[in-house]
Design a protein that fits this description.
It is a single chain. Helix content is 34%, strand content 27%. The chain is α+β, with helices and mostly antiparallel strands and 644 residues long. The protein folds into four domains: 57 residues, Ubiquitin-like (UB roll), CATH 3.10.20.30; 177 residues, Threonyl-tRNA Synthetase, Chain A, domain 2 (2-Layer Sandwich); 246 residues, BirA Bifunctional Protein, domain 2 (2-Layer Sandwich), CATH 3.30.930; 91 residues, Anticodon-binding domain (Rossmann fold). The strands form eight sheets. It has an eight-stranded mixed β-sheet with strand order 16-20-21-28-25-24-22-23, with helices on both faces. Strands 2-1-5-3-4 form a five-stranded mixed β-sheet, sandwiched between helices. The protein starts with a strand and ends in a 5-residue tail after the last helix.
Length: 644
């Protein structure tokens, strides 16, 4: 019996029963077959060596794609688990998924893994790979699975949780075997261990089973796998560069911020230079929000629990909120995790007419979220943060224009801060739980899609992944070393206007609900700064640099003139530091370079006499000497000019 397969180019070809994905790839070309690691059949991934079960649309997944690398990494995770069980009898293994740029597996063992352990495990993995063991898929009943993993409690827990709602047959589970090793898995996997050409173990760390700190702590081994040794080497080089750019390390070296133990996890204090960096970013936000028609509001840091009950946060977000404080012997107060309910109250403070809409409100508001200690990470994941929050209330006939306005704002902002590679995710209505009117969902979703198309931004549609209260787009950027960061969000909300019974008077004097649009352009100021520090490796463009110019006198007799130069630059709006330390000129220059100041000015006898200075711009190897001070001021004013 033949099957008909529709190829990506739209052509339909007939293949005999029993045809595998590899056979299809080979019929197209030998190079494609060599690179194939899995196939996609009607949206579902299958092993490339597995007979294709039915007709449908088929696509070959190759090893040099993100999907293909995920298959490689998943297979490498199995090999790592096999190696650990070989070397550490009695070890219990939990889960081992592929992740961005790598994989991990969690184990319960007698003691934490050491670097020497990782070397042993990696050597055993190399032996398993060299044996070219075949990955074979099997399905067994739940009872057989429980018996097979009788001594593996984590596997038994997974099997006992098999649920038909997840798309699996509740009476069976799928397994993968290679040699004597067997693991519970849905696949797909490469055809054999020999297909893994470039694998390296990275580190070990503690992790809780299922990410819950109430569960047993396990030992997690992280690894990475790539299609070639060349790609692995490039990845390791990127990791080294990322380590050099680590915002925690640079923040300390550049004296921007710190994370004192006395404050607690996830809380930063900002030093003067970091405070100046924040000020420039926040001033930009206020300036441009004003240009885009937003009005500024301010709200307190705490509110009665009743507000969060009405908004729904206590019902949907309680795990990420700090515990309530009991005040006044009656009312409970909660520090705010969001600014939106406060802006809703501004809207609701008086009657609104259709003529007032859109009403655009903005606030740089401090919020507090109870992030688990295991996920707190420098400025990128904090417990106290400032959001450049905006909330727009508009009529439904204004939705498309407002969403387009928000997207243009976001893209302009990101470009002004030096990002020019954008991608987006469009999250649409969930299939089951959602609120609002269907036609409003369609209007908002179509408007978001059209805005992305008009802006020529590559995007993926995350079908059904939107929040229950509205569709959204998330904007991602690529930084200087190619890493992908999720930044700005534009979220439509049909829930809060309903929960707070917001209304406006229409032209016919009827009552209608406004549509609410949330948008955080930076996301949070803290995270945005963390990304900026790593993007620029601390060498900020002139307008952002906390210190824009460093004036260095050659000897103490030049100190007075150095201060005069600094005074003229400050009068022109340039941020200047004068280095009066009793050190050599070379030492002072090296410090200014290490501190990544955009401009270094050196003044000596001739400069005092002629009202000049030597100037060196960051990245230049040599100094221009005897440059007239007026010319230097003009050059630096242009170099440090703020966007917008």
């Amino acid at each position: 019996m033949a099957i008909e397969l529709t190829l990506p180019d739209g052509s339909i070809r007939e293949f005999p029963d029993g045809t595998t994905g590899f056979d299809v790839a080979e019929s197209i070309g030998s190079r494609l077959a060599k690179a194939a690691v899995a196939i996609e059949l009607d949206g579902a991934q299958l092993d490339v060596h597995r007979p294709i079960p039915m007709s449908g649309a088929v696509r070959i997944i190759t090893q040099n794609t993100e999907e293909g690398r995920s298959v490689l990494r998943h297979s490498a995770a199995h090999v790592m688990a096999q190696a650990v069980l070989d070397l550490y009898p009695g070890a219990k293994f939990a889960i081992g998924p592929p992740i961005t740029d790598g994989f991990y597996y969690d184990f319960s063992v007698d003691r934490p893994f050491t670097p020497e352990d990782l070397e042993r495990i990696e050597q055993r993995m190399a032996e398993i790979i060299a044996e070219d063991q075949t990955f074979e898929r099997d399905e067994v009943s739940v009872e057989e699975g429980l018996e097979l993993f009788a001594d593996q409690p984590f596997k038994r827990e997974i099997i006992e949780g098999v649920d038909a709602e997840e798309g699996a047959d509740a009476n069976s589970v799928s397994l993968y075997r290679n040699a004597s090793f067997v693991d519970l898995c849905r696949g797909p996997h490469v055809s054999s261990t020999g297909k893994l050409k470039a694998v390296k173990l990275m580190r070990a760390a503690g992790a809780y089973w299922r990410g819950d700190e109430k569960n047993p702590q396990l030992q997690r081994i992280y690894g990475t796998a790539w299609e070639t040794q060349k790609e692995l080497a490039a990845h390791l080089e990127r990791l080294e560069e990322a380590e050099r750019r680590d915002h925690r390390k640079l923040g300390r070296e550049l004296d921007l911020y710190s994370f004192p133990n006395e404050l607690g996890s996830g809380l930063a204090v900002w030093h003067p230079k970091g405070g100046m960096l924040r000020k420039e970013i926040e001033d930009y936000s206020r300036r441009v929000h004003g240009q885009y028609g937003f009005e500024f509001v301010n709200s307190p840091h705490v509110a009665k629990a009743q507000l969060w009950e009405t908004s729904g946060h206590l019902g949907f977000y309680a795990d990420n909120m700090f515990p309530a404080m009991e005040l006044d012997h009656a009312d409970q107060y909660i520090v705010k995790p969001m600014n939106c309910p406060f802006h809703v109250l501004v809207y609701k403070s008086r009657s609104r007419s259709y003529r007032e809409l859109p009403l655009r409100l903005s606030e740089l508001g401090a919020v507090y979220r109870y992030e688990r200690s295991g996920v707190v990470h420098g400025l990128l994941r904090v417990r106290g943060m400032t959001q450049d929050d905006s909330h727009t209330f508009c009529r439904r006939d204004q939705v498309a224009e407002e969403l387009n306005r928000h997207l243009q704002f976001v893209l302009m902002l990101l470009r002004d801060f030096g990002f020019d590679e954008f991608e987006a995710d469009l999250s649409t209505r969930p299939e089951e739980k959602w609120v609002g009117e269907l036609d409003l969902w369609e209007l908002a979703t179509d408007s978001l899609r059209e805005a992305l198309v008009a802006a020529e931004i590559d995007f993926q549609v995350a079908e059904g992944e939107g929040a229950f209260y509205g569709p959204k787009i998330d904007i991602h950027i690529r930084d200087a070393i190619g890493r992908r960061w999720q930044m700005s969000t534009i979220q439509v909300d049909f829930s809060l206007p309903e929960r707070f019974e917001l209304e406006f008077a229409t032209s016919s004097n009827d009552r209608e609900r406004p549509v609410m649009i949330h948008s955080a352009k930076f996301g949070t100021v803290e995270r945005f700064v963390g990304v900026l520090v790593e993007h620029y490796a601390g060498a900020f463009p002139g307008w952002l640099a906390p210190v824009q110019a460093s004036v260095i006198p050659v000897a103490d007799r030049h100190d007075e003139y150095a201060e005069q130069v600094a005074g003229e630059l400050r009068a022109a709006g340039v941020r200047v530091d004068v280095d009066l330390a009793i050190e050599t000129v070379g030492e002072k220059i090296r410090r200014a370079i290490t501190d990544k100041h955009p401009v270094i000015l050196v003044v000596g006898d001739n400069d005092v006499e002629n009202r000049t200075a030597g100037i060196r711009l960051r990245g230049e190897d040599s100094e221009r000497r005897g440059v007239p001070l007026d010319d230097i001021v003009a050059e630096l004013v242009e170099l440090c000019e703020r966007p917008r």
